[in-house]
Amine oxidase domain-containing protein (Forsythia ovata), 205 residues
Amino acid sequence: MAAQMDPGKSFEDQFSKLHPGFPVNMRIAIVGGGPSGLSAAYALCKLDYSNVTVLEKHHTDKAKKQGRIGVHAISDFALDSTPAFLEDHGFKSVPKSVAYGYTASGYGFVQDMPYAYIHEFTRTSMAGKIRRFKGGYMSMWQKISESLPIEVLCNTEVVAIRRNSSGVNIKIKQNGGNSTSLEFDKVIISGSFPFKNGRTYRSPS
């Protein structure tokens, strides 16, 4: 029977008790190392999943090179307070120009708000009016990817995904070499669709 939500209790508290919904050692693959892929990895780690692998086609995870991202890319961070997010990922503080602008606009103090709200504010209300983080958003995503207890396989092209009775088989090519296969229990496809020649990911009939 599906769990019933109590409208009189905090949604966050009730939701957190539903997870992890699978064994924490489940083998989970994430196809794509962009901001959304790393966001998924971050969320899984927050839920104590310990066997997460990111498969990235290029020589570095794409999130390290993104010059422009939207708040949707960090939606999984919405519950992290700004001080906690900064501390967890090696940042000292939000730039004063952002903090002052946020408070002056009537949104409150940055230390009291989820980091996702601050990010969205800088992306929209203050676009073109402030400087980026030192090193740009590249540094933010690089710190995130380095801080997570996950395996990141770069130069790894996913050429096929097939479900079977035991899980998911992912065929890959590393550094343009011969194809090999990896076995996982679950897969998350992040970013652009990685397949060619009309191949699709289907459940077995």
